[in-house]
Amino acid sequence: MKHIQILQPEHHQHFEYIFAFSKGTPKTFSPITESTKYNGLANMKNRGKEGTLNYKKIERTKEKKVGNVFFYSVGGGISTKDKVAYKHPAIFPEKLAYDQIKT
To answer: Which InterPro entries match (predicted)?
Structure first.
């Protein structure tokens, strides 16, 4: 009898989709940004066709768009200031709603 191993994905999905319904196409998009770790001038180098090293200075950006996984503090007294909301089994963090509306 042959044993067949059932393969599972290596990594599990650690995010949930957020759907934002709007009437028509959004006219503006203001991404949430954060400051970069390194900014200013950077020395870039690459190897040319003849094997020589080519150096070039580039300007790094000061800010970047945040990724698509957000981290918020949640729980009693943190997710929302509305006491009635805690009667619902699935509380949505107000900060997450604010960030989605802002963008």
So the answer is: SAM-dependent_MTases_sf
